[in-house]
Design goal:
This protein is an alpha+beta fold. The chain is built from 7 helices and 9 strands, in the order βββββββαβααααβαα. The strands form 4 sheets. It has a 3-stranded antiparallel sheet, with no helix packed on it. It has a two-stranded antiparallel ribbon with strand order 4-5. Strands 6-7 form a two-stranded antiparallel ribbon.
């Protein structure tokens, strides 16, 4: 078995971008087998790090890369670039917002306090007390009345039994829309 001193520290360098893909140690005989078809393997100094250095072919030196701005960034030989389209970015933002909405939840008490706060709420403070008791506040009774009787029953039972109110709960989403609130206003209730 070879000792650490007998092994060569190497870097696998992407042939297209010259970025260090990974580093490791091996014996000289195995050095060539450490790369893929489109990669180059080279002995490397100890301070060279994966994804943080590139090899400058013309000067034959290892150069530190500027900090990568995000996982989406691609190196064009001179700088990091953003290959995403505006639609890609919008989809990422929407996916991140949906993920935050999926986990956003309030206790019955906190939800009632936030939606009925005298200065920032959407229903009357007295209606917050009704909601806290598990009943439908007057502002939402027309919405519930518009539902078929089996759906009214299910909604009222769910409301009475709810200990938590989730941001994407159908009652919460429907109530917000019925009251004319935007998604952003409902997100604010849940602190997102």
């Amino acid at each position: 078995m070879l000792t650490n001193e007998e092994m060569v520290r190497f870097a696998v360098v992407d042939a297209r971008t010259a970025i260090v893909v990974r580093t490791g140690r091996t014996d000289t005989d195995c050095l060539a087998s450490s790369a893929g078809d489109d990669d180059i393997v080279s002995p490397v100094p100890e301070w060279v790090e994966d994804q943080k250095h590139r090899y400058e072919w013309s000067s034959m030196e290892w150069i530190a890369l500027p900090e990568k701005p995000g996982p989406w960034a691609e190196w064009d030989g001179q700088q990091w670039t953003d290959p995403r389209t505006e639609d890609d970015i919008a989809a990422e933002v929407e996916a991140a917002q949906h993920a935050r909405r999926t986990v956003a939840s309030l206790t019955r008490l906190e939800f009632a306090k936030r939606v009925s706060h005298p200065e920032t709420g959407f229903i009357q403070p007295s209606s917050g007390m009704i909601l806290l008791d598990g009943d439908v506040p007057p502002e939402l009774q027309p919405m519930v009345a518009s539902l078929p009787p089996p759906d009214q029953f299910a909604l009222i039972m769910d409301l009475k039994g709810a200990m938590q109110f989730d941001r994407l709960n159908p009652f919460v989403v429907s109530s917000g829309r019925f009251l004319g609130l935007t998604d952003e206003q409902m997100d604010a209730v849940f602190g997102i």
